[in-house]
Amino acid sequence: MVREVGVYRRKDSRFFWINATLPNGKRIRQSAGTENREEAEAYLAKLTLDAYREAHLGIKRERSWQEAVVRYLAIKGNLRSFKDVQRICRKLDPYLGKLTLSQINGDVIWSVIAGESKKGNKPATINRYLATIRSLLRMARDEWQWIDVFPKIRMLQGEVERDRWLNRTQADALIAVCPTHLAALVRFALATGCRAREITGLEWERVDIARRTAWLNQTKNGTPRGVPLNQDAIDVLVEQIGQHSRYCFSNKGKPIGWEFTNSAWHGALKKAGIEDFRFHDLRHTWASWHRQAGTSCDELKDLGGWKSREMVDRYAKYSTDNLATAAARIERIQASNVPDSVTFLSRQK
């Protein structure tokens, strides 16, 4: 059977189809997506021109934002935060969905900022959108070679850094009112700084109590890491022995889903008199306690599994040991030894 070449009709489709070999040697056989022959022929002409410019002039063919999103999501599919990335891409579609990558310029980025600001979104939320755009465009340039340049995208100023942590008394009060399984999670988080999913996914085969170490394979950045276990963490794990054959933490013999901050969590917060507090803030609490105890930023970086110092430096303010000497210079006992007579120096004109 001889196949038709160019633009043609198929009995099993209401659309025109294309069968052609492009100037770059690529063979295409696909639907033109239209019932109008002139539109189908125009589409084939565009494909031919793009292929010629790419093959003979070195000009990259135009790629759409939606085409890039499909590949980007395929790459990000194994991330724990995949649903968030997917949600952000859907939010961006009204702004970018009809554009090619080369059409995304500073004005387009501003339209995203202005549009989301008008909706009442805070800088932190808008920055998540901007970061996703920047990440995708950088990947399209550096890895896929779809574009040569993309606009400089700066994050918005004014993003309020969350600074929520508990003191020891508040932490004890929270643990006291938590159900048994939830109290164990809270205690382990405060002892290790592990994230919620890292804790609920921790398996016994990845724990060595004798060596006081746990190995995490479900980390936020995808890099497995070891966690040294202090005595508080060991005590929690020992209490869990025998409750589940695979997972270290369970509830009534069943594994705990990572979305466990339900009515029990919120009820415990209310009983303890704690407001505006998330489970992830236990990690902030752990890091703050470490800095207050004198743990260096470099040590904290390794303990928490951060890849850079940027996230760790936010906790530097909780350590004041290096300023103790300076603060003591104006103590009353120090001031009493300073002579009352002070000589002021001035320049004569």
Task: Please explain how this structure is put together.
By secondary structure, the protein is mainly α. It has three domains: 51 residues, no CATH class; 78 residues; 153 residues, Orthogonal Bundle (hpI Integrase, Chain A). 45% of the residues lie in helices and 8% in strands. The protein has 14 helices and eight strands. The chain has a three-stranded antiparallel β-sheet with strand order 1-2-3, covered by helices on one side. A three-stranded antiparallel β-sheet has the order 4-5-6, with no helix packed on it. The chain is elongated, with a radius of gyration of 30 Å. The N and C termini lie far apart (106 Å).
Q: Could you give a short account of the major beta sheet?
A: 3 strands, antiparallel
Q: Write the CATH homologous superfamily of the largest domain.
A: Intergrase catalytic core
- Uncertain regions spanning at least 5 consecutive residues: none
Q: Strands of the biggest beta sheet: in what spatial order?
A: 1-2-3
Approximate helicity band:
40-55%
- Mind telling me the CATH class of the largest domain? Mainly Alpha
* Second rung of CATH, namely the architecture of the largest domain: Orthogonal Bundle
Shape annotation: elongated
- Strand elements, count: 8
Secondary-structure element order, as H and E? EEEHHHHHHHHEEEHEEHHHHH
Number of DSSP helical runs: 14
Termini separation comes to 106 Å
Proportion of residues in extended strands: 5-15%
Radius of gyration: 30 Å
